[in-house]
Amino acid sequence: MRGRHSPKQQMSDNQEEILDKIRERVLERERELRLKEDKEATIQATLQALEEITEVPREEMERIADEIRTAHETPEDTITDTPTLIDRESENLPATVREALSKLPVVLKDEFWEEYQIQTRSVAISYLLWLIPPPLSCHHLYSRHLIKQILFTVTCGGLFLWWFVDFFRIPEIVEAENRNSARKILRKLLRHSLNRKKR
Q1: Is residue 1 part of a domain?
Q2: Which of 96, 100, 103, 177 has its CA 20 to 30 A from that of 61?
Q3: CB atoms within 10 A of CB 182
Q4: Do 87 and 61 form a contact (C-beta atoms < 8 A)?
Q5: Residue 13 sits in which domain range?
Q6: 2 domain-assigned
Q7: If you ran DSSP here, which 8-state letter would residue 69 be given?
Q8: CA neighbours within 13 Å on the CB side: how many for 104?
Q9: Do 116 and 182 form a contact (C-beta atoms < 8 A)?
Q10: Torsion sign across C-alpha atoms 77, 79, 81, 87
């Protein structure tokens, strides 16, 4: 009868269904492999960026990569290619630090920003400290330049000439110190992360 399918037609339909499932599975597997390759490429790019600003040997950097892949990585904290920096101050960070942060897990990124907010220096506060006449001005000490501060105090601000020039250099001094702090914080964070892994 017309309403019934012959055994050959039924077999053909079943084969088509099986082939469709196989095709779907193959495509799904290809997507998984592609994602895994992209993730591994991202991790390797992160290691290269970190190597440029740290003194950590390559072997230890590989351990950090393992930690990124396992301990700190959750579905929500997966490493992505899209930077998720949370603050405008990220524009003032060194390019290598910015690149490294954009590829680190959210857990490490949050730790960095918490520490950076504590360590960062303010141009406004530096100017307020500059307003105190030499030799009592302590804006160099605020920027963690102890030797410069000692010389500044001993020379009475270079007989006020150094003190006057600093008025124009304070933004540059503060920015340089904040960039240096960012590098130090990242190194400290990576070493601490490595020590936790060893334990």
Answers
A1: no
A2: 177
A3: 26
A4: no
A5: 7-198
A6: no
A7: H
A8: 24
A9: yes
A10: positive
